[in-house]
Amino acid sequence: MTVETDALTEAALRFSAAIRAERTNALDTLSAEREATLQLIKTLRSENQRRAQQRSGRFVVGFLLGSAFGAATTYVLNQRTSEEFRLGLAARVEQTSVSLGARLKAAFEVGRRAAATHEQELWTKYRQRLAEKPPAPPREDDPLI
Length: 145
Hints:
This protein is mostly helical.
């Protein structure tokens, strides 16, 4: 039986070594895959960040070009002497301040009229409801009686 026991022991040791080698190989493979996945995630994040910076840079450039184009167009279309401009601006300020006060008064008046109209509509609806339903007689178990 020693030959059989030795053979079994030797087979078990070889099997154990093969399992250990297979497990080590699987762990090495998983570790390499993990590193590759982490590298891929890092690359994707840096690409996403680069694209975000590129988009914001494009926006800023577009905004600046649009502002410059708008300012140039305004300058070309409204070429006046500085004195004409100052006189026109002063006249506009006076007109705006007068018209602003008048507009505010008109707006308040419109608001007051709308509130009064709405209040009258509510009173009319209330009176109609009272006319439609006679009040219920008080209950005997009502504590207020």
